[in-house]
Amino acid sequence: MDQVGEAVGLQMSRADLANKIGDVIDQVTVGTENALDSNERRDVITVVLNEFLIAAKRNNPDVELAPDGANKGADPSITTSRDSVDAAKERVQPILMERMDVGKASELPRGELAGQVADIVAEILSDEKMQLNLVEQRDLVTILLDDMLGLGPLEPLLSDETVTDIMVNGPHQVYVEQKGKLVLSHVTFRDNAHLMNIANRIVTRIGRRVDESSPLCDARLEDGSRVNIIIPPLAIDGPSISIRKFAKQKITLEVMEQTQNLSPQMAMVLKIAARARLNILISGGTGSGKTTLLNAMSRMIDVGERIVTIEDAAELQLQQPHVVRLETRPPNLEGDGEITQRELVKNTLRMRPDRIILGEIRAGEALDMLQAMNTGHDGSMCTIHANRPREALTRLENMVAMAGVKLPNEAVRSQIAGAVNLIVQISRMRDGVRRITQITEVVGMEGEVVTTQDLFTFEFEGENADGTLFGSFNPSGLRPHFMTRAQYYGLDRALMDAMG
Questions:
Q1: How far apart are CA 209 and CA 200, in angstroms?
Q2: What pLDDT does 137 receive?
Q3: Residue 438's closest CA among 428, 449, 427, 429?
Q4: 259-280 pLDDT per residue, tens
Q5: What is the pLDDT of residues 280-339, one digit of tens each?
Q6: I want to staple 366 with a disulfide (CB 3.0 to 4.6 A). Which of 127, 138, 399, 474 is the partner?
Q7: What is the pLDDT of residue 66?
Q8: Taking a C-beta distance cutoff of 8 angstroms, is the pair 261, 456 a contact?
Q9: What's the rounded mean pLDDT across residues 474-500?
Q10: Could you say which architecture CATH assigns to the domain 253-498?
């Protein structure tokens, strides 16, 4: 198949490329027990051709596919398999909806429904005198099922494990993040109405709504993926959907260590910090990996502890058996019934938690969280949007002021210094890799200033030929302020070894 890969790189026309694939298939199958008849050969060529074009586009963005899906230089009269399926869908779908009871169909298992839809589609194609090969028919049935049961054009992206984020900017532009880089995908919607239908399908599953009176909504998919939806009149160019996919692979500190997100010494310090019940603030920008790191660190919590999590849209994946998950509630149509994070934090204190995990500090709940950390709920964790540890402390102070309680600045800072033990700064760097750039310890107060010391910092050193950055995770050599606490848990020797 290397020959075919070279052909893609040489910008061959789709027809020539199909012939090349056919030659390779014949070399492999003719005269063997795997010999194919003409229909099977055509189907295999179609599958391999489409896979190569998609892979070529993914691996080399400079290989542009023309609007009909062929490479530059292709005969524009040759339509692609994808175009054939899309054209067939436009004609088949309305007829299919007339012949099926969609309400009852949606209650059937997907496998059973797929069989029924396939039979009806075959009849419709015959009636309409439309020619599709077997592979194209299967693709058509899959697309129709996705529209009926799933999230339509987004389903292939949701099932692609290399995609971590999906960003829909109106019906005709869908970007994805792969390997830390943003790429324009081939996915489109028919029009704004089609996109709105998918948006409503997402939010109604969890009892929320999105319409002109409520054009903003945070939601989650069944697999836990986080979704934000914003529609006109706020989104000028059509509905916008942002999906942060739920990682199927359980990310641990060991995995992060192997992928160079942090050093083995840093991983050990974070494990000890979680075991020693330090109050930890994870700081970072949007998409920097704060929630992933929070999930990884939460695995260090003892299985015998009672944990309460509080989030706007539940996405934490705690592995312990004793977890109570709380989620905020937006107001109803009349503007009543909203339950905020602050109310949930207050309620959590009555639930006898051993640890409180707050998905993200956004506003006045900061004050209640600090009070909880200062009143015996050691080992609590939360995230905050900030670019540096010092900035995280400043933001925390500003959010306490949003609680509407007038406190002197010195009193607020004193609470912060007494509550927060460790700040872990994580960043998504320009090569797309998330790295922990600082582990900073809150030491105490000097006058009116919260004092800190860095335990580890990442020092950028250069860039490799493939565009990835490299640097070193350097320990400061300072004695951690929480050494006494680590000693109480029998972890002081391990902490000293980790600090070098």
A1: 7
A2: 80
A3: 427
A4: 889 999 999 999 999 999 999 9
A5: 999 999 888 898 899 888 888 888 899 999 988 777 778 788 999 998 887 776 777 888
A6: 399
A7: 39
A8: no
A9: 91
A10: 3-Layer(aba) Sandwich (3.40)
User: What are the tokens at 213?
Assistant: 């009176």
Phi, psi at 470, each rounded to 5°: -140, 155
DSSP structural state of residue 478: P
pLDDT digits over 350-394, tens only? 899 999 999 888 888 899 899 888 877 889 999 999 999 999 999
What type of residue sits at position 292? Answer: T
From CA 378, how far away is CA 412, in angstroms rounded?
A: 19
What is the rounded distance in angstroms from the CA atom of residue 234 to the CA atom of residue 129?
44
Preceding peptide of 475 cis, ω within 30°: no
CA-CA distance, 81 to 136, in Å (whole number)?
A: 7
Greatest alpha-carbon span in the chain: 87
Q: Are strands 422-428 and 434-446 parallel, antiparallel or unpaired?
A: antiparallel
CATH number among 3.30.300.20, 3.40.50.10490, 3.30.450.370, 2.30.30.240, domain 150-247: 3.30.450.370
d(CA 253, CA 260): 11
Rounded CA-CA distance 131/123 in Å is 12
- Helix and strand numbers (H, E) in the chain are 18, 15
As given in the structure block, the two tokens for residue 333 are 């149509």
Pick the range with the lowest mean pLDDT from 21-30, 410-419, 466-475, 488-497.
Answer: 21-30
User: Positive or negative, the Cα torsion across 81, 85, 86, 90?
Assistant: positive
Q: Which of 44-48, 233-237, 318-322, 335-339 reaches the highest mean pLDDT?
A: 233-237
What's the pLDDT at 151? 83
Return phi, psi of residue 138, to 5°.
-65, -40
Domain boundaries, the chain: 2-78, 150-247, 253-498
Q: What is the Cα–Cα distance from 480 to 486, expressed in whole angstroms? A: 9
Distance CA 287, CA 289 (A): 6
Q: Buried b vs exposed e over 307-336: b needs ≥16 C-beta within 10 Å?
A: bbbbbbbbbbbbeeeebeebbbebeeeeee
The residues, ordered by sequence, that sit 6+ positions from 163 with a Cβ below 8 Å of its Cβ are 157, 176, 177, 178, 245
In 310-358, where does DSSP find H-type helix?
Answer: 341-348
Q: Could you give the 3-state DSSP secondary structure of residue 480?
A: coil
Rounded Cα gap, residues 282 and 225, in angstroms: 20
